[in-house]
């Protein structure tokens, strides 16, 4: 095997290991399409989020990977709770690894 093949195999193994570790930490049992429909009066929350992300994406193509990174940083520690968005001293938003996160 060449050096490039060894690196590729190592990279694939590392990515596989990361995903394998995350499988026990993700709980999507309550997630379902249309969950918020009719819960906020007549507003379709999912449609509002979809339109907002689409409008931002049309202006800035880098927003999609930024949102995925923000989601990863939020979910990695204690589950997906949007705590990375909270302002204030000593919050996840101000933690050193999260300072470059945008979205």
In short:
The protein is an all-alpha fold.
Number of helices: 3
The averaged pLDDT comes out at 76
Silhouette: extended
Fraction of residues in β-strands: under 5%
Uncertain regions spanning at least 5 consecutive residues:
none
Structural class: mainly alpha
Q: Biggest β-sheet, characterized?
A: none
Distance separating the two termini: 41 Å
Following the backbone from N to C, one meets helices and strands in this order, namely: HHH
Q: How many strands appear in the DSSP assignment? A: 0
Give the C-alpha Rg.
18 Å
Helix content: 40-55%
What distinguishing features does this structure have?
103 residues; mainly alpha; extended
How is this structure best described in words?
- The chain is mostly helical.
- It contains three helices and no strands.
- The termini are far apart.
- The model has no long low-confidence stretch (mean pLDDT 76).
Question: How do the strands and helices of this protein lay out in sequence?
Answer:
Layout: H1 3-22, H2 45-59, H3 63-78
């Amino acid at each position: 095997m060449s050096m490039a093949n060894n690196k590729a195999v190592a990279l694939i193994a590392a990515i596989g290991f990361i995903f394998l570790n995350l499988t026990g930490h993700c709980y999507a049992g309550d997630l379902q399409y249309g969950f918020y429909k009719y819960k906020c009066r007549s507003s379709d929350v999912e449609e509002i989020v979809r339109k907002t992300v689409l409008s931002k994406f049309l202006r800035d193509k880098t927003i999609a990977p930024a949102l995925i990174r923000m989601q990863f940083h939020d979910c990695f520690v204690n589950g997906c709770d949007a705590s990375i968005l909270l302002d204030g001293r000593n919050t996840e938003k101000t933690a050193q690894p999260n300072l470059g996160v945008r979205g």
